[in-house]
Amino acid sequence: MLVYCVSVQVKPGHEEDFRTATGINRLETMKEKGVLRFDVLQSQDDPSRFMLYEVYRSEEAVAAHRETPHYLKWRSVVAPWMARDRQGEKFKPLYPEGDMEW
Amino acid sequence: MLVYCVSVQVKPGHEEDFRTATGINRLETMKEKGVLRFDVLQSQDDPSRFMLYEVYRSEEAVAAHRETPHYLKWRSVVAPWMARDRQGEKFKPLYPEGDMEW
């Protein structure tokens, strides 16, 4: 199991665009059997800043996600709204332990 | 509802200490009625780096958490192991919507 925390900075004025496109992507992503969570957060201090909290069963699940039509479409749709490259950091979950609580 | 993403850097050699102390704190924290999640993650690139993913029902729940004996004890126990100040960022959850999926 692994977790990606992805930090996103959008250009001012594209907050709602990003929210909508990411909500659509999330709906499809949550149907993937290798995906346990896909939380979308917006910074309280800077509304142009978002965090994606993505929990996968395996590296293979990450690779599979990145080949899905919804991910590829999302990536291309949001590209012009990015203020900078997305920054993803990979983590190993310590707690909760096991799949059930995710 | 709000989410804190707390970034922690421990001094090398204190990774297991931090994991154990934080696991104990988490057990008690998850009993608080204002706490929906309290995930503990360890960076894959740098084992001295941790992320706490804390989901609260309200600002009041955050304030209540910070007065609990387990939080105060944890804070004091881990203090000597910190390589730098913890960095917390506050987010508004966009998805999932509602309490049930947290």
SS summary, helix count of chain A? 3
The CATH topology of chain A: Alpha-Beta Plaits
- Overall mean pLDDT of chain A stands at 96
Which ranges of chain A are low-confidence, i.e. pLDDT below 50, for 5 or more consecutive residues? none
Radius of gyration of chain A: 14 Å
Distance between the termini of chain A: 10 Å
Question: What's the assembly state of these chains?
Answer: homodimer
Order of helices and strands of chain A: EHEEHHE
Helix content of chain A: 25-40%
CATH uppermost class of chain A: Alpha Beta
Secondary-structure class of chain A: alpha+beta
Largest interface: A-B, 25 and 25 residues
Kindly state the number of beta strands of chain A: 4
User: In the CATH hierarchy, what is the architecture of chain A at level 2?
Assistant: 2-Layer Sandwich
Strand content of chain A: 25-35%
Number of domains of chain A: 1
- Tell me, what's the shape of chain A? globular
The main pleated sheet of chain A reads as: 4 strands, antiparallel
Strand order of the largest sheet of chain A: 2-3-1-4
Explain the overall architecture.
The structure is a homodimer of 102-residue chains. Chain A has 102 residues and is of the alpha+beta class. The first copy, chain A, starts with a strand and ends in a 7-residue tail after the last strand. Chain A is globular and about 40 Å long. Chain A is built from 3 helices and 4 strands, in the order βαββααβ. In chain A, a hairpin with a 5-residue loop joins strand 2 and strand 3. Chain A has one domain: Alpha-Beta Plaits (2-Layer Sandwich), CATH 3.30.70.100. In chain A, 23% of the residues are buried. The mean pLDDT of chain A is 96. Chain A has a 4-stranded antiparallel β-sheet, covered by helices on one side. At the A-B interface, strand 1, helix 1, strand 2 and strand 4 of A face strand 1, helix 1, strand 2 and strand 4 of B.
